[in-house]
Amino acid sequence: MNEVILSTGNPKVKELVKLRQSSRRRRELGLFVVEGVLETSVLLKAGKKIHEIYYSEGLADTGQTQELLEGCREDGCLLRELGEEAFAKASYKSSQTGVLSVFETWDLDCSKLRQSPRVALVIDEIEKPGNIGAILRTAEAFGVSSVLLSDPVLDFFNPNVVRSSRGLMACLDIAAGTKEEVYSWLQKENLSLFGTSAKASHSYWEQEFTTGMAFALGSEKEGLGDFWRERIDDWITIPMKGEASSLNLNVSAACLLAEFNRSVA
């Protein structure tokens, strides 16, 4: 049995902090940190490969946590116990759950996407990990087949992506690539591409949606740039009654996907 790691200066604790803070370190090792019993369970259920688990006995006192740890132990996963101070040093949540797991990253190349999606979501130049995580959670809830990150500014395996998606980023068919690579895949799959604009002549209520289409969402700051504006097949508007001139990306995605599901049910 491994000894309990008590020191906040222990190399294992320092490595957890590096993996949490540094996208470069995540790329070098091909590993990323997941915090929480629910998030860890979701990734395991999705078939993602776990590297090791760190836990704090004083915090991991729920039945659900113990069940997770016992299951991982039976599967041969390496478990390491941290003292509460060491765990707090490695943790990135204000409400600590007592479990930190380290998973292997996976390939996000467009060639890995499944074919003939029901509906796809293109997200261009997204910058904020919390935003993409929330959108991925929404996409999973509405049954999106494929999510394509076009020239993303962020690191997909950032802990905030995991946290805000509740681990559901592992349950989606996701790829990241250049604008050209993403558009090439859309063309190969013969998907119609829709964008939103306040200047569009018709609303999404009036649009007939069918399977085999994609919605494109632009960056938080600039919206869709010239590359995508020139390639949109049809523009639609999301009607709004108030003074707001636009919606955030997650709300826009939810509106579009809810209407798609209503139309294509």
Give a description of the structure:
With 265 residues, the chain is of the alpha/beta class. The chain folds into two domains: 11-104, 2-Layer Sandwich (60s Ribosomal Protein L30, Chain: A); 110-264, SPOUT methyltransferase, trefoil knot domain (Alpha/beta knot). The chain has helices at 11-21, 23-29, 37-45, 63-74, 84-90, 129-141, 159-165, 179-188, 226-229, 249-264; strands spanning 31-35, 50-55, 78-81, 99-104, 119-124, 146-150, 173-177, 192-196, 213-217, 234-236. The strands form two sheets. The protein has a six-stranded parallel sheet, with helices on both faces. It has a four-stranded mixed sheet with strand order 1-4-2-3, with helices on both faces. α7 (159-165) links the parallel β6 (146-150) and β7 (173-177). α6 (129-141) runs parallel beside α7. The longest helix is centred in the last third of the chain and has 16 residues, at 249-264. The termini are far apart.
Any key phrases for this structure?
alpha/beta; Alpha/beta knot; 2 domains; four-stranded mixed β-sheet; 36% helix; elongated
pLDDT average, as an integer?
A: 90
Strands of the widest sheet, in order across it, are 7-6-5-9-8-10
Task: Count the domains.
Answer: 2
Order of helices and strands: HHEHEHEHEEHEHEHEEHEH
Distance between the termini: 53 Å
CATH H level, superfamily name of the largest domain: SPOUT methyltransferase, trefoil knot domain
* Rg, Cα atoms, Å: 21 Å
Q: Report the CATH topology name of the largest domain.
A: Alpha/beta knot
Largest sheet: 6 strands, parallel
Task: Give the DSSP E fraction (strand runs of 2 or more residues).
Answer: 15-25%
Structural class: alpha/beta
- Tally of strands: 10
CATH architecture of the largest domain: 3-Layer(aba) Sandwich
Q: What's the tally of helices?
A: 10
Unreliably modeled segments: none
- Return the CATH class of the largest domain: Alpha Beta
Shape estimate: elongated
Considering DSSP H and I runs of 4 or more, what fraction of the residues is helical? 25-40%
